[in-house]
Amino acid sequence: MPQLPIRKTHHLAYGRVSIPGATYFITLVTQNRKTDLTANDHPEHIADTLRALHRDKIINLRCATTMPDHLHLLFVLGEVCDLSLAISKFKNATRKALAAHSLYWHRNYYDHRIRQEANTNDFARYIFLNPYRKSLLTADQLWPHWLCNRTYKPDFQEQLNPDGTPPAAWYKNAPTAQDLTDQDTHP
């Protein structure tokens, strides 16, 4: 039997820094990439939990999208707790509802502190486009699991089609998260 590659997810925390007031792009994945995160009432529970963290000033949520096996977040870290504790609070608040359907969060998470505020819009657009890039819906449909703070207005929203969908060229040639991270880290 061939040996599976060894995951090195412990490297995700290498260089992790927690700065109140900094903007973060976060990706949380389900354990074993199980694809039930958009089933049942999980997206609503996730949205309610994010709103509660926002209300409690743990984060200032900008936007998020729930995908079948992962969640992308863009937020400003509040002054209440550090980044790891904020993510822990989120996972703990959603744990019971997910576990009822044998769904669990992966132990770790990916984070990127956005260094150049001008790049925040690019990360928001990436989060918005993710379900389109993954061909989870057609170009004329809206992803129901997109969440955007009503006080946050990313620039790309002004360029959406009248029905709120993105131009097809956006997701056919959209940069990857790694491209955005590299651009932000090494301008």
Choose one word for the global shape: globular
Major sheet strand order: 4-1-3-2-5
Order of helices and strands: EHEEHEHEHH
Helical stretch count? 5
Number of distinct beta strands: 5
Calculate the mean pLDDT score and round it.
91
Indicate the low-confidence ranges by residue numbers.
Answer: 7-14
Share of residues in helices: 25-40%
| Major β-sheet annotation | 5 strands, antiparallel
Q: What Rg, in angstroms, do the CA atoms define?
A: 16 Å
N-C termini distance: 45 Å
Work out the strand percent: 15-25%
- What class would the helix/strand composition place it in? alpha+beta
Explain this structure.
About 30% of the residues lie in helices and about 15% in strands. The chain has helices at about 40-55, 85-100, 120-135, 170, 175-185, and strands at about 25-30, 60-65, 70-75, 110-115, 145-150. It has a 5-stranded antiparallel sheet, with helices on both faces. Strand 2 and strand 3 (about 70-75) form a beta hairpin. Helix 1 (about 40-55) runs antiparallel to helix 2. The longest helix has 17 residues, at about 85-100. It is globular and about 40 Å long.
